[in-house]
Amino acid sequence: MLGKKINLPLYLIFCFFCFSNYPIYSDENSDLLEKKIKVVMRQGSRKKMSVLYKELGDCYVQNKNPVKAIEAYQKALSFPFESLNVDKRLEIVRYLVSQRENRTALLEVEKILVHDPYNAESLQYKFQLNPVKNTVSAQYLEEISLAKKDNNQNKLTRLYKELGDSYLDLNKKEEAIEAYEMALARPAISLTLPERFKLADFLGEQGRYTSSIAELKKLIQADSNNLKIKIKLASFLIANKKFDEAEKYINEVLDIDPKRQEALCIKENLLKLTEKNE
To answer: Mean pLDDT, to the nearest integer, of 66-79?
Structure first.
């Protein structure tokens, strides 16, 4: 054995196939996966089915068979959300977008955002796959893409805020809400206090209490004597059924201004609600 010459290139290829962690895709592999899917289907394991269809789709991608890859991926996404994690779902979305299967990709992105509302890649795809014909909004999306590459968080805050404004001009409230939430999720140094209050107020009026309340609390930390912010925060806390916390803020307002009519009305309403819940 020691005396024999080894064909080095063939030996290296052999070692790669034996020890590589990456799967070797072939038509035989896809046939094997399809047989395995039939077995698992009889067992009724929905989670395994989803994972196997994802693997089958990957196999077809490697074999350069986009039609079958898309079909397998669509089947993978048809099972309950918990059967496939977000990373794997985004892998599928990327491929679907590359094949211009935008409708299926958009439906999946919206599903991901239900479970992970701040998933940056999904939000970006939602903007991309739901294009706004208005050139101003399109321009903001382009600038956002550049700011992301530069990791300019302050500029991104301002751009997301202005993008939300442009969506509102088009009466696209859902898109505006998403853009405003993205703005407030970043360092707010590039937005003035009145601008931040306006966004928080809008989000609260649209029923996005979590985002709105979180931002209003930040504003109170920056301006603890601002009664207008405390009144607004109390009203959204009541809407979110957090009565004890709402009472704390409304009492702080009345301690400073006992005759503040808006605060008195909220206090009266709060007392009625707490009596009902006792």
So the answer is: 89
Pairwise CA distance, residues 216 & 233, whole Å? 6
pLDDT tens figures, 81-114? 888 999 999 999 999 999 888 888 888 998 998 8
Q: At what angle do helices 193-205 and 227-239 cross, to 10 degrees?
A: 20
**Picking from 13-27, 37-51, 114-128, 196-210, which range would have the lowest pLDDT averaged per residue?**
13-27
Termini Cα distance of the chain: 89
Of 236, 186, 187, whose CA–CA distance to 209 is shortest? 236
Encoded tokens for 265: 């009305």
CB of 31 closer than 8 Å to CB of 40: no
Give the CA radius of gyration of the chain.
Answer: 27
Q: Which domains does the chain have, with CATH numbers?
A: 26-84 (1.25.40), 96-130 (no CATH), 131-190 (1.25.40), 192-278 (1.25.40.10)
Longest dimension (CA), the chain: 102
DSSP label at 65? -
- What is the distance between the alpha carbons of residues 130 and 207, in angstroms, rounded to a whole number? 23
Q: At 146, is the pLDDT very low, low, confident or very high (cuts 50, 70, 90)? A: confident
**Both tokens of residue 59?**
């196999």
The torsion angle over the Cα atoms of residues 28, 30, 36 and 38, rounded to 10 degrees, is -120
d(CA 236, CA 266): 11
What was the pLDDT predicted at 249? 94
Asked if 165 and 187 touch (Cβ cutoff 8 Å), the reply is: no
Token output for 77: 């996404």
